[in-house]
Each structure stands twice: as structure tokens, then as C-alpha cells.
Specification:
Pathway: Cell wall biogenesis; peptidoglycan biosynthesis. This protein has 447 residues and is an alpha/beta fold. It folds into 3 domains: 89 residues, Rossmann fold (3-Layer(aba) Sandwich), CATH 3.40.50; 202 residues, 3-Layer(aba) Sandwich (UDP-N-acetylmuramoyl-L-alanine:D-glutamate ligase), CATH 3.40.1190.10; 132 residues, Alpha-Beta Complex (Protein-Tyrosine Phosphatase, Chain A), CATH 3.90.190.20. It contains 17 helices and 20 strands. The protein has a 9-stranded mixed sheet with strand order 7-8-6-9-10-11-12-13-14, covered by helices on one side. Strands 15-16-20-17-18-19 form a 6-stranded mixed sheet, with helices on both faces. A 5-stranded parallel sheet has the order 3-2-1-4-5. Strand 12 and strand 13 form a beta hairpin. Helix 1 packs parallel to helix 7. The radius of gyration is 23 Å and the shape is globular.
């Protein structure tokens, strides 16, 4: 449904909110942007330049409750009293992705999962661009989908979707969707019920039919069990790193194989990204490419020359034979599990920050196998020390990136790795995970 000449309220004035406001105004709607916090100067300037009314530090309920439609920031929970009041008045509350979809004729590839979605989104976009597609990149990464549609609609959009964005999507129908994995995350937003979070992820399928394609990880027991229950009426394409499939994609220790209309193979050693989880990401991207009938040479080239997102298993430098890797984006245990799993040399692991109720015991076997020393980088490291003190002989504490990197340089030997993969949020010592990663890189380059 396309809104014109309507009263639209945008809750939240971040990248997605300002993008939605610009799109709403373009189609002649009366718009109010309302943010309960302070709006960043750059976004405020943009709203002023486009004569879009806004308020900060409050929500004027009397006006908001007269809206024809509300576009909500993914950061605002559905349980917020204002959102509850809107729903009671039957005022539609949607995400910026849903809203942008009303105005876009583009075909979409939508990627979700608990881990790996940013990497896979960027990889699929890289593949489409290399194949000459007119493809935008948006969602939970980069510039908002709504802003891009306001500027220029495209033939394709590759969109990373979080569960919070999916919760506000109702009519949206992906051309191709990808579900990478489902592990516990954000359960505080889902009443601590795992099934609620699973249902949220599966919203990606809600409007898909025989004209669309669903690529999924058949090694994930939650996903396979839900597919058996739900019986999706779309083209389901599995991938596996544990067993061969006759249709879809799989890998063994030597190569990946993708079978859609015909067979595509590629040596696992030629993939740009190492580690089992990245093999899964490469399989998902490769399958999407072959569904779109992108030439095999271009798929092969794209999977071999892709450069991963900053702060995600990012190679920083090699100093006197010691490799330093920045995985600051790993803010939960599951992300760190993937990082440790991909380490091929003895590793000094920098971990810690604001604990989100982490269960570090899931990492014990990997730590035994891969880690020679631990550096705790946080204000309260007691849980990490307690979990690993009988597993790793050396555990030290650092209170800054410089100190952590100096310890890493001392504890690692030539041909070994120092890995920053915190498994925690960053807000005790840093502004955010980017700040943490950048300070780590600066400290490494100063060695």
C-alpha cells in the first residue's frame, strides 16, 4: 500500500528514521519525526534542510495518536507504551523496510540469521555488482533502504534484516531470502522465549510463494525443525557443510559444490573467507548467484576476492611474525565461537566487556584446542576468569587497548595470532564496537 497525502509519524531519528521521513515527504505526506532522545547534529541538519518537522527529548502523544501510519525505529520495542497505545487505536506501526517496500519496484534478496548476516549481505551485493546488476545495499547495514528508494529506485536491493526489522514487516515479499542460523540472541526483547525469537526470524517467509526462493542452513536443527512444521510454499534451497545434497549447496574438506540447474564447484582454499561459518556464508551467496544465473566465473571470482566487513575477522597487521586480527563486531558468545573456530594457529585471545548474560562454557572445548593465553579487556572479568582458569594457563587483565595489545605482543610467538573477539558489548571502556576495533588497530600499528 502506497501512502500519499497522509499523516505519517516517524519514531526515531537515526539513519532509518530520517530515510523514512525523506521518502514520506517525497510522496506528499505530512510528516513528524519524533525522538525521545537527542537527535544527532547531522540528522537534525538534514531534517531542517528538507523542512521536515521534528521533536527531540519527547513524544507528543496527542499528535502521534492521530497518525495514519507510524514508521518505528527497530530500537523501540513493541512493548513500549506509545506503541501499545498506537496498536490499540488500530494505527499501523511498521518498520522502515516495510515502508520503503511500498514505494519500491525492486526485486530483493533479504538475509537474516543470528550471526553472519552482514558478511553474507555484503558478499551477495559484491557478487551482484560484479555481475553488472543495478543493485543497492541496505537494511541493517549502510544507508537506509528508504533513503535510497527516495533518491533512486533500483532493479535489485540486497537487504540485511534483523529480527526487530522483521517484526515490523507485514506485506513485504523477498524475491530471494536467506536464513543462516538461529541461536539465542536479544531474548530480552522476546519475553525470554526462544520460540518468539524463532517466529520473528521466520517472518522472512511470510509472503513468499512459488515465484520466490528460500535459501536455508540445513545443519541448523532449529531451522530444519521449523521448516518441517511450517512447510513453506516456496522454492526451498538447503546448504550444508556436513552432508551432500542433490539440490542446493554443500562442502567437504576440499571444495564447495552448488547444484541448481547444473553443477558448480570451487576449491575451499580459494574462498576469500576462512572458517566453517564463512564456508556457510559463501555457500548461501553462491546459491543466490546461481539462482540468478550469474556466470560461474563471476561467482568463483566474487567468492575469492571479497573483502570482509570492517571489525569482523579483519586482518590488521603482522608484526615480527605475529598476526593481529580485529573481530570487535563479535558482541555475543556465538560470534566469538565462529571466530575461534576459524583460527588455524595458536591464539592469544582478547575477550571481555559488558556481559549480556553470557554462558562462556560453550567456548571451553574450542579454547582448550586453540587458545594459549587470554587477555581480559573489561571492567569486570570475574566470570571469564572463573570459566577459563583451569583451561588456559595464562590469563591477564588489561584496562585499555594499548595494554591489551602490548600483552598480546608479549604472549604470542612468531607464527601465532592475537585475536580481539570480545563476546561482549563494548560500553564499559569504549563508545561502541567500532571504537573498540579502531583503538585496537591503532595500538597494533603503533607497535
Amino acid at each position: 500500500m502506497r501512502y500519499t497525502n497522509s499523516h505519517i509519524v516517524v519514531l526515531g531519528a537515526g539513519e532509518s528514521g530520517v530515510g523514512a521521513a525523506l521518502l514520506a515527504v517525497k510522496f506528499g505526506n505530512k510528516v513528524l519525526v519524533s525522538d525521545r532522545g537527542q537527535i544527532k547534529a547531522a540528522f537534525k541538519k538534514e531534517l531542517e534542510e528538507n523542512s521536515i518537522p521534528f521533536e527531540e527529548g519527547k513524544h507528543s502523544e496527542s499528535e502521534i495518536l492521530t497518525a495514519d501510519l507510524v514508521v518505528k525505529s527497530p530500537g523501540i520495542p513493541d512493548t513500549a507504551p506509545l506503541v501499545v497505545a498506537l496498536r490499540e487505536k488500530n494505527i499501523p506501526v511498521v518498520s522502515e523496510i516495510e515502508f520503503a517496500g511500498y514505494y519500491s519496484a525492486a526485486k530483493t534478496i533479504c538475509i537474516t540469521g543470528s550471526n553472519g548476516k552482514t558478511t553474507t549481505t555484503l558478499l551477495i551485493h559484491h557478487l551482484l555488482k560484479k555481475a553488472g546488476f543495478d543493485a543497492g545495499l541496505g537494511g541493517n547495514v549502510g544507508t537506509s533502504y528508504a533513503r535510497q528508494v527516495a533518491e533512486k529506485d533500483r532493479e535489485w536491493f540486497v537487504l540485511e534484516l534483523s529480527s526487530f526489522q522483521l517484526d515490523g514487516m507485514f506485506e513485504f515479499k523477498p524475491t530471494i531470502s536467506v536464513l543462516l542460523n538461529i541461536t539465542p540472541d536479544h531474548l530480552d526483547r522476546y519475553n525470554y522465549e526462544m520460540q518468539n525469537y524463532v517466529n520473528s526470524k521466520f517472518r522472512i517467509l511470510q509472503n513468499m510463494d512459488h515465484d520466490s526462493w528460500f535459501i536455508y542452513n540445513m545443519d541448523d536443527p532449529i531451522i530444519t525443525s521449523e521448516i518441517k512444521k511450517r512447510k513453506p510454499e516456496t522454492n526451498c534451497v538447503p546448504f550444508s557443510i556436513k552432508q551432500p545434497v542433490s539440490f542446493g549447496g554443500f562442502s567437504d574438506s576440499k571444495q564447495i559444490t552448488i547444484i541448481i540447474k547444473d553443477q558448480f564447484t570451487m576449491s575451499i582454499h580459494d574462498l576469500a573467507m576462512k572458517g566453517k561459518h564463512n564456508t556457510q556464508n559463501s555457500l548461501a551467496a553462491g546459491i543466490a548467484g546461481r539462482i540468478l544465473e550469474i556466470r560461474k566465473e563471476i561467482v568463483r571470482e566474487s567468492l575469492s576476492d571479497f573483502q570482509n566487513v570492517e571489525h569482523r575477522l579483519e586482518f590488521v597487521a603482522r608484526v615480527n611474525g605475529i598476526e593481529f586480527i580485529n573481530d570487535s563486531k563479535a558482541t555475543n558468545v556465538n560470534s566469538t565461537w565462529y571466530a575461534l573456530e576459524s583460527m588455524e594457529k595458536p591464539t592469544v585471545w582478547i575477550v571481555g566487556g559488558v556481559d549480556k548474560g553470557n554462558d562462556y562454557s560453550e567456548l571451553i572445548d574450542l579454547v582448550k584446542e586453540k587458545v594459549k593465553a587470554i587477555i581480559c579487556l573489561g571492567t569486570d572479568n570475574s566470570k571469564i576468569i572463573e570459566t577459563f582458569k583451569s583451561v588456559v594457563p595464562t590469563i591477564v587483565e588489561a584496562s585499555s587497548s594499548e595494554e591489551a595489545v602490548a600483552f598480546g605482543y608479549r604472549l604470542a610467538a612468531k607464527e601465532e595470532t592475537v585475536l580481539l573477539s570480545p563476546a561482549c558489548a563494548s560500553f564499559d571502556l569504549f563508545e561502541n564496537y567500532e571504537d573498540r576495533g579502531n583503538q585496537f588497530k591503532t595500538a597494533v600499528r603503533a607497535l
